[in-house]
Structures are given as structure tokens and as C-alpha cells.
Amino acid sequence: MIIFGNLTIIVLSCTDPRLNSPMYFFLSNLSFLELCFTTTTVPQMLSNMWGQEKTITYTICVIQLCVFLCLGATEGVLLVVMAFDRYVAVCQPLRYTIIMNHPLCWKRALMAWLSGLMESLIQSPITLQLSFCTHHHVNDFLCEVPALIHLACGDTSFNELQMTISAVLFTIMPVGLILTSYGYIAQAIREIKSEEGRQKTVTTCSSHLVVVFMLYGTVAIVYTDPKNNFASEYGRFFTFFYTVVTPLLNPLIYTLRNKEVKEAL
User: Fold this and answer.
1) Which of 18, 22, 61, 125 is most buried by a 10 A CB count?
2) pTM for the complete prediction?
3) Is there a contact between 174 and 80 (Cβ–Cβ < 8 Å)?
4) Which SUPFAM superfamilies match (predicted)?
């Protein structure tokens, strides 16, 4: 369902002229990112749940760690870019095509992916240099930073500090920027005369906010302070949520109440 839903959004955005807009360009990037999330984590997760031998090789573990960090940071920046797109569409409608021109959209999408790549290149080597315990028992569905910190037997204070800084940069700051943009959007919505126009704006923006709180809320709980009791006890649940549930719900949230996507479909 994750693959089918996200592929549908990508195909519709690329083939239907009605969806040839910055919003659907960024949505296609988000769908592609969710496909990468799924193919990186879910097959190994299903294999370990289904089979008797619940193991993962060191190579696959490293790949999961690097790709997961890259995709997570990219999604954090991409949602900010999507919030800016909605801000311009609602608050600066007459200048929308000038501000959100095609080359600039590509640059912003590239900026999001490069931010994720930089995060992975910085944090992955630091995490993999930890002194791991001899039992090599990863108490999680996949190899992510909090799970590997719990696996380490040496001093992890530097890694925890570095991860907290990353969590602030890629979760708390983006949420602040997104809420600021939606504050301006809320003011603009009150000035819209047409009831239909107001309803369409609220529907589009509310779907984005639902995705934002689902993703940032769960990630912040796990990554801001990985060794607190709540994160240690329920971390796997939140990991499962943002690796499986969020990619599954994103296509539904963005398309169920979207007239343009229904017509294109």
C-alpha cells in the first residue's frame, strides 16, 4: 500500500497537466522519499518478524543507518519548503508564479536532499566509531542512531549531544518555521471572501500540518533525548510509526480531500 500510494502520486504529478505546479512537485519529492524509506527499512523488518533468525549483517546495518539519516533530515527540510510554498500561495497569490518559479523549486528540492546527505555524512561516522558491546543485540526494528547508542558500552555523551543538536536543527527549528508560516496563513484565510476558497485553503493546509505533527512529534521524542525512560521504553513504537505508518498515511492525507488529485486519478 505504501509503494502503490506514493507511486500513484508521482505518476499523476508527472503525467497530468493539472498537477503541474510547485505543490505537486514537492509532494512528488516527498512520495519518492517515502518510497526510499520503505525499501530501506521495511523488507529487513519483515524478514526479522517472519523468520526464526532475527539478524542483520553489519553492512546492511551501516547502509540503513546512513540512508535513514539522509532521508530523515531531507524530509525535515522538505516539509519546511512545502510550508513556504503554501505561505506564498495563500499570502502572495499574485506573485506566486514569480516566487515559486520552476528553477527555484528545483534548487529548493536539491537543498533539502543535500541537507540530508550532509547530516548522514557527519553523523554516521561518529555513530559507527562507538565501542559496541560484545552481544551486538540491537533492541529495535532497524539500525538507527538511538538504537546503536544503546548498544554502545563506552561513553556516549558526545554522540548524545551531537544527536540532540541534529534533532534541534531538523525537528524543532523546522517546526518553528512551519508554525510561523501557518500563522501568517491563518491571518490570510480570515480575509478570504469566498467560502469555497477559504475551505480549499484550510483543507490543503490542514493536511500538511497533520503530516508535520505526525513526523516531527514522533522523531523528536526518540532523537532529542535517546536515553530517557520514555524513549527507551516506547522508542520502537515511534520508530515503527515514522517508518511505516507515516509513509502509509501521507498519500491518503494529501489526496482524500483533494479535488484536483481525484480528477487527475
Assistant:
1) 22
2) 0.85
3) yes
4) Family A G protein-coupled receptor-like (SSF81321)
If one counts the domains in the chain, the total is 1
Q: Residue 181 is part of which domain span? A: 55-247
Residue 118 lies in a domain: yes
CA distances from 31 to 71, 142, 211, 229 (A): 12, 21, 12, 33
Residue 53 contacts residue 133 (beta carbons within 8 Å): no
Task: Provide the grid cell at 92.
Answer: 502572495
Written as nine digits, the cell of 258 is: 483533494
Instruction: Confirm if 188 and 131 have CB atoms less than 8 A apart.
Output: no
Length of the chain: 265
pLDDT tens for residues 131-153?
887 778 887 788 888 888 888 88
Asked if residue 72 is part of any domain, the answer here is: yes
pLDDT digits (tens, 9 = 90+) for 60-91: 889 999 998 899 889 889 989 988 998 898 88
Q: Does any domain span residue 147?
A: yes
Taking the C-alpha atoms of residue 77 and residue 63, their distance in angstroms, rounded to an integer, is 22
